Amino acid sequence: MQKKSEETKKTENLKYPRNILNLLYVVFFACIVFFILAFFNVGGFKDKMQSKKDKESYATLNVFYIQSNSLEDQIVTFIASKIIQNGSNQIPNMASYNDSLLILDGVVNNIARDNQAIVVKDDSLFSFENTKNITGFVLEKFKEEFNKRYKEQQ
Known about the structure:
This protein has two domains: 1-59; 62-153, Protein Binding, DinI Protein, Chain A (2-Layer Sandwich), CATH 3.30.910. Strands 2-1-3 form a three-stranded parallel sheet, with helices on one face. It contains four helices and three strands. 8% of the residues are buried. By secondary structure, the protein is mainly alpha-helical. This is Periplasmic protein.
């Protein structure tokens, strides 16, 4: 009997290290798999960050300029012609001129917002390459907006 109990102890002692060894293999294999997956995930993250940086580096800003002196002259002429067309011999209402300045600011702001641009005057201190002259475009938009408001007032 004593021999049998010694044999069972030996087999139990042999099974115990095998279980630990198997457990170590499983943990080691799981760690390797985890690190491989983590490595590929970090690589994908770096690719995403690089593509985001590339997109940001290619972002452009449009710069438009307005010939402010000629635009103001054309606006005053346009408003004066509207007052003359009205046919009144009264003193012109300067409120329409003041409103026209607000309309002009609104038109310029809308153009800047829609085109993601900076709009500068030609007498400003800024100097940009590849600027686009939008004086005529601003004048046309101003006329449209002024005519619309002028009709609403009458």
